[in-house]
């Protein structure tokens, strides 16, 4: 459909967002709904999106996934605490790039407050005005504050209609601003930062857009500063700017002082035939391949991970998702079934790092959802 192609092109060229089979189907539904609401044909609606910034912003609000959680992927926050402890006296900036509904920047602000450093600030940016409005409002339901300990709730929340609100003192330590990571350098919005959290954003980007975005972020990180990504993000080449380091059990990327010569990225290029031999590496490889649209390679990597560790529920789950996307619902269902079995056999200690900090319960409900839906 020409209107769908046109809208997909606008989203890619203006916001970096790729259109995979699943997101294309969703986009088609959203376009149809919006056109119906506006009472105009779909191609007229897409022309409006093309020419009127407000219409484009509205579509972007609806297309982007703004979901977040407090202290999502806790190990990364432990690593941040270590960075803060070792850092020279401030002032310093921590940038939450693609902040969603605000739980990420407020989690960062809570952690900084707990370390007792007063001269650190958090800057939170997003392309979606809806997400920014939510972050500004700083109101969350009981379900949304689930990731917060009793003590943090006591210190940083007050009750508000329908749930909770972040206390004013913490809200003041977070500056919220609009910024499109796919379009422009952030120098006018964010000072040079010692730490950048850009999590669960690049997974929606096309490969080239992702690489350009990494370069722009690198330009805003002080040498020796750190970048944290989500587990499903596919940054592409970054060895020119960063070296991977493990800190407090979390993988992050340290900004090189001088740019290194460009080296081929590991495991993603056609010429590189050496698959990583540990299940975690294979999960990452599978995620990357899926994000780049290479579903065969994704299926292969996730399957290898299940061979290496037959108890890894997340590997079966990712395999099922990749098979589903590749148009093989029967095999997908088998994989989701195996994920359910592995979950039941597990003793509860399975490391769910591959799921970006989601809990065991989240994985169990995702598997149940898939099994009831995939016939
Ligand atoms: C799933 S949320 C991630 C929120 C938070 N970082 C986390 O991990 O919990 C993804 C966010 O990326 C934002 N986003 C998508 N494309 C973007 C772009 N081109 N520039 C800035 N933000 C973008 C979306 O609006 C959305 O709020």
Shape designation: globular
- One letter per element, helices H and strands E, the order comes to HHHHHEHEHEHEEHEEHEEEHHHHH
Distance between the termini: 28 Å
CATH topology of the largest domain: Rossmann fold
Could you say what the CATH architecture of the largest domain is? 3-Layer(aba) Sandwich
Provide the residue-averaged pLDDT.
85
Number of helices: 15
What's the Cα radius of gyration? Answer: 21 Å
Structural class: alpha/beta
What's the helical proportion of residues? Answer: 40-55%
Low-pLDDT stretches: 260-275
For this structure, what is the CATH class of the largest domain? Alpha Beta
Strand order of the largest sheet: 6-2-1-7-8-10-9
Q: Give the beta-strand count.
A: 10
Proportion of residues in extended strands: 5-15%
CATH H-level superfamily title of the largest domain: Vaccinia Virus protein VP39
- Provide the domain count: 3
Main sheet properties: 7 strands, mixed
Unique ligands: S-adenosylmethionine
């Amino acid at each position: 459909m020409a209107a769908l192609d046109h809208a997909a092109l606008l989203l890619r060229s203006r916001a970096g967002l790729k259109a995979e089979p699943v997101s294309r189907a969703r986009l088609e539904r959203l376009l149809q709904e919006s056109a119906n609401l506006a009472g105009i044909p779909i191609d007229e609606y897409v022309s409006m999106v093309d020419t009127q910034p407000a219409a484009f912003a509205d579509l972007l609000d609806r297309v982007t996934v703004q979901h977040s959680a407090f202290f999502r992927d806790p190990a990364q926050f432990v690593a941040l605490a270590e960075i803060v402890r070792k850092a020279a006296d401030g002032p310093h900036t921590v940038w939450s790039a693609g902040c969603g509904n605000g739980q990420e920047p407020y989690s960062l602000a809570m952690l900084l407050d707990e370390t007792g450093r007063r001269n650190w600030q958090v800057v939170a940016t997003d392309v979606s005005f809806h997400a920014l409005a939510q972050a500004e409002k700083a109101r969350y339901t009981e379900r949304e504050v689930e990731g917060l300990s009793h003590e943090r709730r006591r210190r940083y929340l007050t009750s508000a209609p329908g749930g909770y609100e972040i206390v004013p003192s913490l809200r003041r330590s977070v500056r919220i601003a609009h910024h499109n990571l796919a379009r422009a350098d952030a120098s006018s919005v964010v000072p040079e930062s010692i730490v950048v959290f850009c999590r669960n954003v690049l997974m929606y980007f096309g490969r080239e857009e992702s690489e350009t975005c990494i370069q722009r972020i690198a330009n805003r990180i002080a040498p020796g500063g750190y970048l944290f990504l989500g587990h499903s993000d596919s940054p592409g080449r970054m060895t020119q700017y960063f070296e991977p380091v493990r800190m407090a059990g979390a993988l992050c990327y340290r900004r090189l002082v001088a740019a290194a010569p460009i080296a081929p990225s590991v495991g993603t290029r056609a010429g590189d035939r050496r698959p990583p031999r540990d299940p975690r590496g294979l999960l990452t490889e599978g995620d990357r391949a899926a994000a780049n649209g290479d579903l065969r390679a994704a299926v292969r990597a996730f399957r290898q991970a299940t061979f290496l560790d037959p108890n890894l529920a997340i590997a079966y789950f990712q395999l099922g998702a990749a098979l589903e996307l590749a148009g093989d619902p029967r095999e997908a269902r088998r994989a989701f079934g195996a994920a359910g079995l592995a979950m039941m056999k597990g003793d509860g200690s399975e490391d769910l790092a591959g799921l970006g900090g989601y809990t065991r319960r989240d994985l169990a409900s995702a598997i149940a959802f898939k099994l009831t839906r995939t016939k």
